[in-house]
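Schema walk-through. Below, the input block comes first and the output block second. Nothing else is stored per chain. Lengths vary across the set, and this one has 434 residues.
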Amino acid sequence: MTHFRFTFLACLLLAGLQLKAQDFTLSGEFKPRFEYRNGYGKLRPANDSLDKAATFITQRSRVIAAYNNPNQRLKLGLTLQDVRNWGSTEQQNIGDKNTLDLHEFWVELGLGKQTSIKAGRQELNYDNARVIGNSDWGQQARSFDAALFKYDNVKSQFKFQAGFGLNSKSETLTEEVYDVANYKYLQLLWANKKFKNLGLSFLFLNNGMEYTVNKALPVTAANRNVAYSQTVGSRLELVKNAFAFNAEGYYQGGRDANNQKLSAWNLGADASLKASPNFTFVLGTEFISGTDMDETDNKNHSFSPLYGTNHKFNGLMDYFIVGGRLNKIGLQDYYFSLRYKKDRFNAELTPHAFYSMGKLVSGGNEMDKFLGIETDLTAGYRISEIAVIQAGFSVMNGSKSLENLTTPAADRTKFNCWVWSQLILKPKFFSTGK
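--- output ---
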């Protein structure tokens, strides 16, 4: 299968060489990242025998092909991706330990000057990627098997997209159990309108997750059903000279992946001021609803960003929401950023103050909602047109409440930090376009 995949892709790329002058581009991406994790994701364990920092290097390598034929109103996109930890395979790689993946392969056919249909495996990004995004920080990133109807009126600056997804594990004669950590059905609507200094967006997402009806019985197709949740909301973006303001709000209803009634919400806002050509100040907050630990109404009040690019929100150390970490209790995030940019260099310092939204209870006693303070420092330098080097250092000072919520038992007095650096290369091998 691997040999067939390589052969197929090689033939496709070679065919691109024969395309007409404005149609084909072949580029790449190479992104190795070093990480030192010593309290990343959760507080360090109290048991010293379990407490040893992790160090590793991951790498993402991509070959990206793009084809565009305006005469046929046809576009194609292909991203071949290899993601690995250095040392995760033997030097001779004996056996089936492939890390190769077809991250994207989609086709877009124009129906008219402003409308098209796009289908296949593709990345989806809407607005600031809070609910739907490609999660590009993760080396594996995220892509969807989906079909989109797209409308784009450049003159009026209005965009509209309607999407649909239906997932299954294989071709079968009868219904099978779909136990992949993915949606079974997905429908979305997104609209965006640009004004002079203002942008407005609307998003609706109907997300269907398959679940087991009676967990005391065997997991069969007859014992499975689909629970649907609905996420609806809007985002506002205002830019006026050196000032910018963004705000968004979402509500989730229906049923969660366990078929529990769902009633949750999310609100976020930030304001930025470019004080000089080099310095920008940002002040922001986000509220993610949570479920009280002594909740008795049998409803899930914990908002889920579902397919959002979660790493870019709520601190870079990923203590909350990312990977389902502590998402049940919700979150209040108050932050301030100082950004500096000059020529090829940029840096950003952002402290966060975290509180839970839901009530915290331990041993029948209510705990303080304060969870801790995280400070993130990042920097980047553009080496050339195709190369960027980035690095970061983050520290988490957790509270007693966060310590009580952490398993295995944690010791908040220990120093929790995360250090990383990465190189991003994006070469363009050749292009027959203008």
